[in-house]
Specification:
NAD(P)-bd_dom_sf (chains A, B, C, D); homotetramer; nucleotide binding (chains A, B, C, D); oxidoreductase activity (chains A, B, C, D); Myo-inositol 2-dehydrogenase (chains A, B, C, D); 6-stranded parallel sheet; alpha/beta; oxidoreductase (chains A, B, C, D); Dihydrodipicolinate Reductase, domain 2
């Protein structure tokens, strides 16, 4: 593919599932960018889609991308344990960075990486894609348009279609850091407020193996926000009917809430009543468009030199909330965020 | 009105708003009963509807009803502070009792009253009418029909259209006893389980006067149930759009949830989108039919000599939950119900 | 029951199902009326509910009611073939009249009866109860509030839960007069316009016995309105899922439409999708409140001396539309209403 | 772009809006195809997207594509009046053909073109994309799965967000051929049945200029199907709230129906009631995915040598229905399809 004039040139690190999603959007749908190169220890496994997308420069060594002289920005889509190191390396090489969340499961590593990126003066966006989802963005807009008035309550429901294997659970960082992190971000996003304190409830109801792995699979977390509102998140590792992703915000002027996206609007009415379809099952299908829109926002920020919509601190703050939730669950009390900072 | 053969003969104590609701249902819609007499210090104010219903025997002294030799059962619809005493008197007089909730704001008075009723061997039903609401009863039925599977989570949302005056708030017993008591009962009803522990969050967001009166107007309570499930109740003293009454239950086989009742099913679509009507505003309109069905259930229990669907203990247990919620709010920790018993 | 001062005194002719509905509303729920007496050749069969409602004056001879000196108005709830005669007798006796539809299956008898009533100067309301239904009234209000703008299209869907027996079909006057008459009235009601011409399609798809009885069980009728709009009605004698009653109006400013009333708002989501309840099955349940409201409107018109909301001509005009529809079906062409007048 | 092994090689004729839609899908999303070349007299205007898609072989002369020795199949996306000629030329050149509808406004030209294609033995698919829409395909599937039982009624509603200019209307072939053709196809698709007779109603309610151009802008057409069912289509050239595309099918086992696709599932509830978003406005947005799926179906048919899901006759039959509808409107009578064949 010929180099496009004025294009922002991107290198993608990690050619697994999420690397593919981003590369495909960048090549086919985002205007004004080109994907120069990719790197992955197992880049050979991605031959088919790299061919399909016409990406010919391929490395097994991420350093080749991180230090590539024709790369303006990198997408860090590798395994979680490598994010922080690549973020640091990229920042030091003066590359702008789109980094998948979480930055790391260790808060000190995250703080250090953010510090390096800040000092390097590069643009950094964290991959909280749900902020760009049509439904949640519409709720945010309703709040901005004052349709809800002063915020009194935020409710987030998040249920996965299937639990992860217990082996994964063991290294996941626990349900709050691994799964609820998105919902904690959603509370911060919708409210535009930080959180003061947290209280958590949890149980093992889905899979006893998750309990044996030292985690829970069902949780409810209440959050006291600095703006005075109360938020409550409920999550489950398994909903038999599919991926359940809803929010409700309530305030002095009214309420805004979302329903799940369905494959079709059909309703069939028979002797058993009226039936609608199940929610979309797979997160890549459900959030497909949000990945595109977040990349467009990143590219726009790069092009205009503005602050991207999800910054480094947005990768750090929800970690404190998750840590406070874990502490609350263990100590059966309200935990101030200041206790875990 | 001529005495009907085999009718259950009822005396109504209290001819205010809720007394009228019950009397009207008993006279016009419940089969096999007759209202023999009523009593209220201000019975004169009820002349119009007593005439309308053809109830001619009227007293200012409740004792006249409680000891009436033609009365089989009494409806205690007077002010809250008199419920426990009338309950005791009725029980001692051998009358069956339908008692509006709360029995009293003081748990010791409630326990004593229930003890007396028990020893007297009379039938006692407590007025948790929402259990008989078409929507909530349908959720209960879905649970019984195993449509939800093992219960993992119960969510109850309850928002009033308008806050009470601060003067009322001062003597109300607080939001948990005064307002959330219905929702605490709903959790017990839907789950069929007692509660082990409670955690509460609260804020004054609706009306500062409520705060000055020593109460909150917005609350979220999380409950650990003995059957392992988690419940979360969110309430507000004011929703500008009307009376918001919804539940959601989630479990291993799926989810069941309700929407608010609307005045009509009309949807108007124009340049601003599609608009549906607001929920019904007034609780007597919203729960109109539930009052009838609860009376029918009471009468059925009397006629068949069976246990009524809402018994004395159902008037006591939610009080402990409310007390634990209040304690949790003050002490910022999870409170075991055993701590407040 | 003591005579109420200033009450409008009503006599009910016909103590079958619809007579009971009206009598019960008049006794229990409509303000400012009393039911003085009833008449029916089989009045003995109604003893139970007449006792329940406290109606003691009972006749087998309708003339006793029609000429009763304490009766201000009569409700004609007898069998269809007697409506016109009783209407004439009542008018001649100077009684105001609420008459169930149809007035008669013979248009000449209807015209004559209306003429008599007009000359007698009595108030006459025809029982098109659906106009008073909460959903359809809301659509009418939306039109009056200009939410729809200039009317372009009206769509009415009407499906019964079960077909009538073929024996009934034979004497019913045919599907247009017997069943669609309500929907033809709905078009006139919503549009506020008369109809110029009609085109009909029909088939026997539900029950071959209906075909053998010379009728159809499925029909679509298109109507050209004098105000320029087009209306289309589709009906079926049988919907397995219950009583299906919906309208949609469309115009220059938008669309308003209704859904069926459901027994409860519950939605159960499982591996098969999300299920809501079937529509209400029985017309007396579905339209219960509309019967009350139409009686309240009749009484209000009597009390205030105003024109009632459904007048004599409203009983006649839809008959012409039904007759034109039948002619159109036979002649496979558009039929002007003027052809059948 | 390198030639892919085993790819089906496609030439696209017409690089306007719909040509772009198909080319983009073929290049980016359909597996196993490549776009070899394009032709359009104004191909220069498409430079930007042709560059974007990496399509380098570009002609002004369609013959270059039609006779290209590396082209297996052509997409005819040019202006309507050229479809039939290109179809004939492509068939004679032995190319498989995907042809946008309508094939032509003149039925004789269409018949001739189909004859040529048939004799040439090439595969021909007509661009009735709505058959591949997620909602309508779900209704078709519900019918195939016997959820509806024997079909009794099909209802199609189709309203455009804005009327075309009167200048276009003059050469459009009229509302039945130009706009309702999709809905007529939908009836054939859903029913799997041909149509016996048609009756039409119409009016000029949206724009008097359309009337002056000799056309109508609002229409209702009733269709008698050979399988006994009745269908009714209502269309309008303008719905202020957007693109309104719904169907309902009703039968012996129940009903299936669709709602419009909305941009988001958000519902905002305030003092004015609950508001949902308007339907998607633009047909390319609304039917975006259907264009992809129809191309995938075409490619699958080519690869497997099977009959494509929309064949030549599907391009011809709805024309007869449209012609019969026009005749019915003029003659105010039911028109048999045999009259216009």
């Amino acid at each position: 593919m010929a180099e496009k004039k004025d294009s922002i040139r991107i290198g993608v690190i990690g050619t697994g599932r999420i690397g593919y999603v981003h590369a495909k959007n960048l090549v086919q749908r985002v205007q004004g960018v080109e994907v120069v190169c990719v790197a992955d220890p197992y880049v050979d496994r991605a031959t088919e889609w790299l061919d399909e997308l016409g990406i010919t420069e391929r490395y097994t060594d991420p350093a080749k991308v991180l230090n590539h002289d024709k790369v303006d920005a990198v997408y860090i889509c590798s395994s979680t344990d490598t994010h922080a190191d690549f973020l640091v390396d990229a920042a030091k090489a003066g590359k702008h960075i789109f980094c998948e969340k979480p930055i790391d499961l260790d808060v000190e590593k995250v703080k250090n990486a953010l510090e390096v990126a800040k000092n390097a003066g590069v643009t950094l966006q964290i991959g909280f894609n749900r902020r760009f989802d049509h439904n949640f963005a519409a709720v945010k807009q309703a709040i901005l348009d004052n349709k809800v008035g002063d915020l009194h309550m935020i409710k987030v429901t998040s249920r996965d279609p299937e639990p992860p294997p217990a082996e994964y659970v063991k290294v996941s960082g626990g349900i709050f850091l691994d799964m609820m992190i998105h919902d904690l971000d959603m509370v911060r996003f919708l409210s535009g407020s930080e959180v003061k304190a947290v209280s958590a409830a949890g149980a093992v109801l889905v899979d006893p193996e998750i309990g044996k792995a030292g985690d829970i699979d069902t949780a409810v977390v209440t959050l006291w926000l600095e703006n005075g509102a109360i938020a409550v998140i409920d999550i489950s590792r398994k909903a038999v009917y599919g991926y359940d992703q809803r929010v409700e915000v309530f305030g002095s002027a009214g309420m805004a809430r979302t329903e799940n996206d369905l494959p079709a609007t059909i309703e069939i009415t028979g002797v058993e009543g009226s039936r609608k379809e199940k929610p979309l099952w797979f997160f890549l299908e459900r959030y497909n468009e949000s990945f595109l829109i977040e990349s467009e926002a990143f590219v726009k920020a790069l092009r205009e030199g503005t602050t991207p919509p999800v910054v480094g601190i947005d990768g750090l703050e929800p970690m404190y909330l998750a840590m406070a939730a874990k502490k609350s669950l263990e100590e059966k009390r309200v935990v101030e965020i200041s206790e875990v900072r």
